[in-house]
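User: Hey, my collaborator sent me this sequence without any context and asked if I could get a structure. I don't really work with proteins. Can you help?
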Amino acid sequence: MPKEPFLGILQVNTTFHRPPGDVGNLSTWNIPIKIKIVEEASGDAVVKTSKNYSDEFVSHWIKAAKEFVDEGAIALITSCGFLATIHPRLQSEIPIPVGTSALLQIPIAQALIHPKKKLGIITFDADNLGKEHLIAVGVDYDVPIVGVKRGGEFQQILRKGKEYDFKAIETEVLEAVDTLIRNHDIGGIILECTNIPPFKNAIYKKTGLPIWDIITLGNYLYEVSLPKNYN
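Assistant: No problem. I've predicted the 3D structure and written it out in structure-token form, which is a compact way to encode the shape of the chain:
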């Protein structure tokens, strides 16, 4: 029996709640997906060591990606935007389209908005996201980056296992968006963090701006990898 094509999601080993809209919540998707947890990759380490991942760390992701290919995946994404720095390695090892990070959408997003406007990034951790991540996905120019509150509710929930508080996270995300649009002439927003899309509608209501995230990337990769039959 032929394998059903699907989008493979390589997920960091975490235990926090993932509401609808999160990359790891099945109800987020209207396309066939499968999730594979990379057991050796914990959430905080993925962020804090992302500028210099070890070869051993990268090998775990390559192994999991190849398993997905054997299972019938037609495209892959990951559950953390900081994994942008492993993109060149995964891309060279895997024969199907690979989307390690929402940051991959920066060039096309910038090309679509007004030329005098800037694209801005909202991230889980502005202290650890930098030029290394941008260069790894082919972006060799500065892009404004604003993170959620350092040591705030969102970071404590993901890093310290604090109870999930949707409204508290939403407040911190919108505060970051406020900072971004107050300090830059923004024409569109990229959500680095795959746990921020549940708040995308609130961001849109606040700004009216187009928003790209890991969900838009995943849907795009699935569509280009398995074109719809209109007949």
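In plain terms: The domain at 6-101+216-225 is CATH 3.40.50.1860 (Rossmann fold). You can pass these tokens on to your collaborator as they are.
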